[in-house]
Amino acid sequence: MNDQPKIAAKAPLAVPFAEPGVPTIRNINWAGTWALYRKEVHRFMKVQLQTVWAPAITTLMFLVIFIVALGGSGRTVTLRGEAVPFGDFIAPGLIIMGMINACFANASFALMVGKVQGTLVDYLMPPISVGELLFALAGSSVTRAVFVGCALWGAMALWPGVHVTPAHLWAVIWFGLLGTSFIAFLGVLTSIWAEKFDHGAAITNFVIGPLALLSGTFYSIDRLPPFFQAISHANPFFYIISGFRYGFVAAADTNIIVGSIVLLTLNLFFGALCYALLRRGWKIKA
Fold first, then answer.
1. Each residue of 77-111: b (16+ CB within 10 Å) or e?
2. 204 with 108: CB under 8 angstroms?
3. Among 98, 149, 95, 114, residue whose Cα is nearest residue 40
4. pTM higher than the cut 0.90
């Protein structure tokens, strides 16, 4: 007689697999998009001393030079008839300029380094759509810009004689996001086109840098001759900086509604262009 206790047989575990031919990922792959976004954020946060704090400190040095070395603490700048202390005028421009540079550096690096190191397949193999890939790359770049902007804002808030309390917080957020998303699309476009690091550096040095410096960061365009004022209005960076500055000092070089329309149009155009090129696989799948 068998004295061993009988063990009741368990029913096999039912795994909820989808039926053949039925997609398991519907509409938007939130998990995949979030994973790629986190991966890109983790990439620059691993070296945050270089990617966040170094750009913030470098940009802060401009404030020190203009306020202390050049004696700008007692000067004022006139914006549409309103006198603004020079320190209050230049601080928002420096914040958004630091955000622009950090955003472009991040967006122009991801796909380009994949081409150089042969790891581009890591972006092409995951089951995410072109829109999700673009969203993760641009979103992580905007995140880096926000980190740099917060670091700069905190440092400038402690600087004596400089007031960076937002007068219109909505304008700070609105133009900050519009501006950095536009720059992120430019960076992704550069990353698609570039085949080596020299190409990315050329766009940074000959396009992004000059446009940022000649956009009214350090001066009001009201003091320029009419011809150069017209050139400044053709610079998209001018609308980013002017609108962002409006959020702090409640005065701007131009109509902020016009600036919003220009930046929205540029975002839609360059976002669609990046999407089309990624979908086609131009210089990526060749």
1. bebeeeebbbbbbbbbbbbbbbbbbbbbbbbbbbb
2. yes
3. 114
4. no
Q: Which residues contact 259 (CB under 8 A, 6 or more apart)?
A: 175, 239, 240, 242, 243, 252
**pLDDT 10s digits, 133-185:** 999 999 999 999 999 999 999 999 888 888 899 999 999 999 999 999 999 99
β-strand partners of 284: none
Strand, helix or coil for residue 154: helix
| Per-residue pLDDT tens digits for 28-87 | 889 999 999 999 999 999 999 999 999 889 988 888 888 876 665 678 887 877 888 888
Q: Which residues pair with 84 in a beta bridge?
A: 77
Cβ-Cβ contacts under 8 Å for 62 (sequence gap 6 or more): 90, 94
Cβ–Cβ under 8 Å, residues 178 and 98: no
For the chain, what are the domain ranges? 39-280
Tell me the C-alpha distance between 110 and 180, whole Å. 16
Structure tokens at 125: 């193999």
The residue assigned the tokens 């994973």 is: 35
